Amino acid sequence: MKTKFFMTLVLVLMGMCSLQAQPGQGRRGPEFPSERLIKELKLTDAQVANIKKDNEELRAQMRASRENKEFSREDMKAMMDKMRAARDEIMKKNLTDEQYKAYVEFEKNNAKNRGPRPEGRGPQGNAPTE
């Protein structure tokens, strides 16, 4: 009985250690563009590569702004709004006009599906505008 308990405890601890040792499992967020977006917009491999490259640069800027504790909440909101607009520009630059229109619709539908945000969490509807 003690042996089974000890072995179970060892297995659980090993599992916990291996989960903590996983690289890149922090607050990364969902991959952009998502597989669903790629399929829905029928993106080419070149478009996906360009969007991912540009998006990584944007994510680095977002990370840097979040780490800067000197900004007020309003400053952070304004910066995030600018970065959302920058993401829209990335998409506009890399997509055809037809794909961009479909992207705008995709984002509007996603904003609706997310539902209302909890009180005090900022505006709803971060979908790009045409």
From TrEMBL:
Record keywords, A-Z: Coiled coil, Signal
Compositional bias (Basic and acidic residues): 106-120
Keyword Signal: yes
Highest taxon of the lineage: Bacteria
Residue ranges that the Swiss-Prot or TrEMBL entry lists as coiled coil: 41-93
Organism ancestry: Bacteria, Pseudomonadati, Bacteroidota, Bacteroidia, Bacteroidales
Protein name in UniProt: DUF4890 domain-containing protein
Signal peptide: 1-21
Annotated stretches, region: Disordered: 106-130
